[in-house]
Structure to design on (803 residues):
């Protein structure tokens, strides 16, 4: 209780995990919107136009929640991680500033046009506005992932006379190989999330027997884009990411896999409980030699275990890291299987008759959120005990003048506020889904004509 | 280099206050000036397309701090810990209130969010003024000791300073009234009928009240920081800002008589920009003044980040600011028409 760094970490973890629930849908849905707008604009596909119109509303709600939960993130670097900001600001300040200046301004200028401007802008300009929002959200993702990639695998830096980090080469920093792989992996996972959400609403409508044209569009878009993205999440991006971890954070790989002893023909553990005290995996089910092949491409290569590293280099929470990684990888595999089945049924034209499959699809949408959260937990717990890998420990990074009581106070505040926001979000999106596509547009604050037409809203 | 980044910080912060300032003003005023649902909708519609982009200027200011003055960030943010979270939570409530208010027809739902919207907007205007007060007055910085500051004091003019004390609260009240006036001018510019007429009356009264509070705050400042005015007078760079402020007042007053609503708003914006610009000139090179010893103050040169990173940023930052200015111009030109709030 008295160690403030626990609360600083918990608060940052809580606020970032909560925040990321929204941008992942923003980024993934932005791609779907661009695809639908394109089909509507180029091929006059009215089902796609309708899909874009319906999802743009949910996009607007989701975007607003992403903005309000995102603003605290940048400021918490200063309030809670002051010593880290002082130490690494010379490097990570660059990308955090780039994100605000290039991505947030762009998104904020175009979001109103995307959500409310279809009629006023006309099909061509509305398509380009959608592309602009997509570009802004994906650019924002790049700058954030680059910042994180630096903390995972510092590149392009030097030290000043006080030992703090300074930028030495901007290109090396921005095109960190870790960043490129992590970015592709993260963005594709966001597309999987959005695809599952889109498909789940399609499955709901199909099971209810209403909005059938929209249901079919949602199911097709969600399943097809989702399957492609889910495959790419696993291979090559997830595979490349694992190889980078093997190369640059071998102790993390050992902990992720619950590998306590080094050696060749390293097995891949599917199920089992890490027992850190006894240094073994209890009740393990594993495939022999597969880990050596996955990490290095040959069974002969030895994969280092935790025994090869001094104890103070070990990730601080091996059990949670192990489970996070296995939850992520396991769910990712299940997504591919489920989406493959759905695509097969779509191909045969039997999906709408397959009630159990539709039920699975409808109820599956929370799991990609769990998988992305587990993925980030793998990355961030795997980085421990370092804040900047190999250079700066997490315990060195907190604001030392902020008491644990103050952090606990604000953590409780965030918990309460975000609880209310969560209920609000589910309520508002639930209403949109219940109204369905083709419902009259939501009441706008930004459109003079509508504000006028709805002047008697209080009596409505 | 230090001058440039100090100016960049002043620019982003001033733009934030001038732009998001009218959102705060409209928000707090909507509780008083908008009498029915149609008028409250019109008030929200007036700032609807603006607020998100305006808030990005605060993030941009945070970006400049991180990029150019990380050690200032590391000293000031933890010291103002609770105040920061109050601001962040109010910003969250403000944004959510604007976005969700009109989604549901129920009058109860709307009344609730109207109060959240107005209350959080008012608190934000006050707190940003308090922040400015703290920067101008200075804080008890000591070399080698992490800065801590009481959240509030007993408000006596003597003795200990705190985040909220008599001086910073009076600057906060001035900021609140000035931003209410600025918001009233924006509301008059974007609405019609009864609401516009009320906003016009309010903008006049509020700017007059602002002038009185400005005199009070200036007098307090002359006592607390007598050298500030001397510095200002001795620096010719400050004169254009003073001219901007005076020009804004003249322009606004004349436009008010001619009922040219958009020019009243522009006049108020120039006044705020001039005041903040002149304040920045007066404060330079100090970023955070120590009330204990001048040598402990954080200055722009002492907090400046390393040269290579800054030279990289100089290549892209001006382009980004130009783009952002373009978006502001685009948003204003796409949303310059009046919103009808009456039949």
């Amino acid at each position: 209780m008295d160690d403030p760094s626990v609360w600083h970490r918990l608060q940052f973890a809580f606020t970032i995990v909560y925040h990321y629930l929204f941008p992942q849908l923003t980024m993934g849905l932005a791609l779907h919107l661009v695809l639908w707008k394109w089909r509507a604009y180029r091929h006059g596909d009215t089902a796609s136009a309708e899909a874009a119109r319906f999802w743009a509303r949910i996009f607007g709600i989701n975007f607003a929640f992403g903005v309000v939960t995102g603003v605290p993130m940048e400021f918490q670097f200063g309030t809670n991680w002051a010593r880290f900001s002082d130490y690494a600001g010379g490097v990570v300040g660059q990308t955090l500033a780039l994100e605000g200046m290039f991505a947030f301004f762009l998104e904020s200028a175009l979001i109103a046009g995307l959500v409310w401007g279809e009629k006023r802008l006309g099909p061509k300009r509305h398509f380009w506005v959608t592309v602009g929002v997509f570009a802004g959200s994906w650019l924002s993702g790049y700058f954030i992932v680059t910042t994180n990639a630096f903390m995972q695998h510092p590149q392009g830096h030097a030290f000043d006379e006080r030992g703090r980090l300074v930028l030495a080469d901007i290109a090396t920093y921005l095109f960190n190989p870790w960043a490129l792989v992590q970015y592709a992996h993260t963005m594709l996972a966001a597309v999987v999330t959005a695809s599952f959400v889109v498909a789940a609403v399609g499955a709901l409508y199909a099971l209810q027997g209403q909005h059938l044209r929209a249901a079919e569009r949602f199911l097709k878009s969600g399943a097809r884009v989702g399957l492609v993205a889910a495959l790419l999440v696993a291979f090559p991006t997830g595979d490349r990411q694992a190889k980078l971890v093997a190369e640059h954070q071998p102790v993390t790989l050992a902990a992720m896999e619950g590998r306590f002893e080094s050696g060749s023909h390293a097995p891949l553990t599917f199920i089992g409980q890490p027992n850190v005290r006894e240094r073994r995996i209890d009740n393990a089910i594993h495939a022999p030699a597969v880990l050596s092949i996955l990490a290095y491409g040959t069974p002969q290569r030895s994969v280092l275990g935790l025994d090869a590293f001094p104890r103070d280099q070990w990730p601080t929470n091996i059990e949670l890291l192990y489970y996070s990684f296995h939850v992520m990888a396991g769910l990712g595999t299940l997504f591919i299987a489920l989406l493959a089945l759905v695509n097969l049924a779509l191909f045969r034209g039997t999906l709408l008759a397959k009630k159990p499959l539709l039920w699975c699809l409808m109820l599956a949408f929370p799991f990609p959120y769990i998988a992305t959260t587990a993925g980030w937990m793998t990355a961030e717990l795997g980085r421990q005990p370092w804040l900047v890998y190999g250079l700066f420990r997490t315990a060195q990074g907190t604001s030392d003048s902020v008491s644990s009581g103050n952090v606990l106070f604000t953590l409780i505040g965030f918990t309460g506020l975000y609880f209310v926001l969560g209920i609000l979000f589910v309520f508002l999106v639930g209403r949109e889904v219940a109204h369905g596509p083709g419902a009259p547009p939501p009441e706008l604050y930004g459109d003079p004509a509508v504000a006028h037409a709805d002047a008697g809203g209080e009596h409505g | 280099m230090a001058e440039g980044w100090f100016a960049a910080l002043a620019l982003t912060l001033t733009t934030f206050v001038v732009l998001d300032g009218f959102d705060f003003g409209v928000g707090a005023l909507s509780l008083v000036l908008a009498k029915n649902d149609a008028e409250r909708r019109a008030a929200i519609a007036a700032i609807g397309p603006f607020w998100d982009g305006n808030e990005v200027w605060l993030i941009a200011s945070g970006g400049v701090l991180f990029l150019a003055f990380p050690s200032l960030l590391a000293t000031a943010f933890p010291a103002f810990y609770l105040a920061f979270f109050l601001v962040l939570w109010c910003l969250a409530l403000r944004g959510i209130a604007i976005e969700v208010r009109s989604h549901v027809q129920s009058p109860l739902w709307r009344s609730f969010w109207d109060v959240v919207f107005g209350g959080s907007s008012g608190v934000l205007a006050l707190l940003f003024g308090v922040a400015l007060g703290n920067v101008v007055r200075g804080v008890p910085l000591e070399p080698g000791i992490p800065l801590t500051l009481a959240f509030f004091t007993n408000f006596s003019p003597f003795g200990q300073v705190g985040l909220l004390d008599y001086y910073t609260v009076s600057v906060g009240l001035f900021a609140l009234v000035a931003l209410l006036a600025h918001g009233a001018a924006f509301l008059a510019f974007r609405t019609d009928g009864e609401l516009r007429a009320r906003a016009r009356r309010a903008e006049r009264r509020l700017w007059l009240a602002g002038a009185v509070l400005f005199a009070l705050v200036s007098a307090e400042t002359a006592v607390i920081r007598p050298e500030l005015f001397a510095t200002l007078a001795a620096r010719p760079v400050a004169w254009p800002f003073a001219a901007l402020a005076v020009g804004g007042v003249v322009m606004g007053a004349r436009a008010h008589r001619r009922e040219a609503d958009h020019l009243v708003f522009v006049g108020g914006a120039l006044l705020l920009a001039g005041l903040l610009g002149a304040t920045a000139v007066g404060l330079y090179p100090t970023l955070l003044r120590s009330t204990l010893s001048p040598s402990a103050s954080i200055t722009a040169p002492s907090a400046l980040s390393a040269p290579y990173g800054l030279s990289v940023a100089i290549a892209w930052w001006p382009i980004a600011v130009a783009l952002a200015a373009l978006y502001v111009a685009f948003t204003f030109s796409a949303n310059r028409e009046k919103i009808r709030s009456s039949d």
Q: What stands out?
A: Strands of chain B lie at 286-288, 298-299. The two ends of chain B are 56 Å apart (CA to CA).
